[in-house]
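ugh finaly. both done.
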Amino acid sequence: MILEKIKEIELDKWGKIQFNIVFLNLYIQFKRLETMKKYIFSFILSLCIGSLSAQTLNQAKKLFDNGEYEPAKEAFEKLVKRSPSSAEINYYYGACCYETGDVEKALPYLEKSAKRNYIGAFRYLGKAYADLYRYDEAVENYETHIEWLNEKNRDTELADAELSEILKKARMFKSVEKVAVIDSFVVNKTQFLEAYRIGKETGQLIQTAGGTIFENELGDKRIGSEMKDSLMQLYSQAKLLDGWDKKVPAESLNDSCNINYPFMMGDGITLYFASDGEGTLGGYDIFVTRYDSEDNSYLRPDNIGMPFNSTANDYLYVIDEFNNLGWFASDRNQPEDTVCVYVFIPNESKQTYNYEATDPQIIKDAATLRSIRTTWTDDTKVQAARQRLANIQLADKENKPKGEFTFILNDRFTYHNLQDFRSTEARNSYRQVLQKEKDLNQLTQSLQQKRLQYGSENGLGKKKLEPSILDLEKRIPQLMEEVEKVTLEVRRLEIERLKR
């Protein structure tokens, strides 16, 4: 259009002047039009980008609210690069990092968000600091979080409950027991009892599907765990002339949680066990209680604290008084299918670190057992304990029967190989028992893992886990009944064969 108007200009003697004036005016109009087009384009583009960003942000927040933290983390990672100063986006990305297990990475984003007083950031900062054993900072952030909730007239019930748990952990952290851990063994979870080299004077540990049984030195009393109403619960049993009496539930201990891995001291009164219920740091924790013979019940259990307990699963605390050695298992810092068994020197009385006068890092290392060598304060005492452990391992190796399993037939016979069976029918049936026990152990571990995962999920994550948990809760008791039924039949068949 502009070019056509230029062509229409008649170049007379004033032509050059007229042309220059007209061209200049047209050029100015053209540049204005070009600038306006750029402005309109930029404005429309910014609207589109803003709309797209808002849509992406809403989608990412929806994933987070549904407990889908991995895909939410990917979305927020892109958003935080576009808007590195956004308090909201820094909060969500930091929270996603925390929920997916990357606690250290979560800190700078949550700290940046908290500086802008984003309320949720204080809560997640408290969680992250607590997981890193920085309890003073954890408490401070939770208190700030609750103050903001009160100021905004929001419900503080959840935050109050979580702060209470952190304060409990902080108290334990301020009373970490001084204990010399002389060795540790990383073993498969399904065979972790093989690492417990306790003397015969202490008793016998028997691994079952999902739990353990402790039998005293005389072999006339047992305390074990079994699945009842989809939970592991404790029971005791006395020896009769022709077998074991019926199982008596430990009603004063059994609760709406898993109670497992019992061990009774030689006094017949002091009982250690593991529980994943109230009063734990996370997962299974080790507790101690004492039997009250007058009331025929156990006293209120106490959490034995750090370093024996952690935010992971800690269980089967055993004291070999004859050899002055202690044992416990933990899956802290371990892959899913392994567990670490620690060997330590028991204290005659509890000795704790001076929290106020000790470097916090030293206390943290002691609480987490980051390095067992740092727990060695008396080399002579440690070397003597390690020698006792070596002697037990050597004697155990020499005396241990070479076999595939331990099957107690009666007071006279204990089988360790399929070839020990006289009855062909009993032998074949016991093959089924071994396979069923293996399946049962796998199902029980799967159920425990899914329950722990369920507790950390929200919304959609819980819904996805519910069908598999319900299915396992139904299948495990059925399989346990099958194992018990077939085992009784094996014992009957073999005893009949021996009588001939």
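ok and the 2nd:
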Amino acid sequence: MTLQETIRAIGPFDEAAAARARRRWNSLAKPLGSLGQLEEAVIQIAGITGSERVRLKKRAVVVMCADNGVVEEGVTQCDNSVTAIVTENFTTGTTSVCCMARAAGADVVPVDIGVAREVDGPGLIHHKLAFGTDNMTKGPAMTREQAVEAVETGINIAMGLANEGYRILATGEMGIGNTTTSSAVTSVFLGRSPAEVTGRGAGLSSEGLERKIRAIERAVAVNRPDPEDAVDVLAKVGGFDLAGLAGVFLGGAAARVPVLVDGFISAAAALAAVRICPAVRPYLIASHVSKEPAGRMLMRELELSPFLDAGMCLGEGTGAVAALPVLDMALAVYDEMATFTETSIEEYQPLV
């Protein structure tokens, strides 16, 4: 499905289904609203799917893997060879998110959307747009056509998984240098200076952090991305992984499947998706808030309230996968708890 077709396919949030889910919560023999965000998440998922019978047992984390040319500027602690190694490790089940996904009952779906060398392994989806992006400090990271193709890759993966019966998707990524691109995208979208939104990523020194900020400043100055054109921003200072994740959010919304936002990088991609199509916003569920400086800024901009605040910044989709058992516990109460009627307890009444 093309980007424009997807935008047209995204329907409104189903308020009637959400209301039915809220009535179910209010019928349970406990104080009204006492499970807070857990209740609101189930209500939101009902509105997304159009049914108060919320089922999330088939779930996957989509991990977009790509390299970033800006690594040439010394903005990372390690070189881009790590991207390929970890990408292949996703296929053998040996990364952090793979371990967590097994515990959460989720499938890991790795995608080579732009790793800088050939990679392979069982279950790896091959859609390499290039061997990494260009160095954004010297010109656009990619062409506009590549950015659109990356977004459409994510759209079609999300819609394909929905057609296979997946009920919820988590988002993850792997790409050395992608906190640099995410900081650049965030800087442009939020109208904040690179220094305000840029963190140390995977352990940069103070000197390395300064190089990272300067590289983002140069990239924005050289490319002059248009904050009113999200595809332009992704093409000029983003990455293939970011654009692919933006597509996953768009495709999930079109398929009426909830999509969990992971941390900083995933949230930057989610904001790009919302800027492309504002109707995506109610289809997003925040898992956690990253400890990167812009983590909370992005949550506020997206109007999301994450379940977890655990100081995580690993990426790969680990925060999104960590939220799945929380949702399972919410659904256990929603599905199994006795109602006021069943227990002959007088119903709580809303406070005025």
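summary for the 2nd one i guess: The mean pLDDT is 96.
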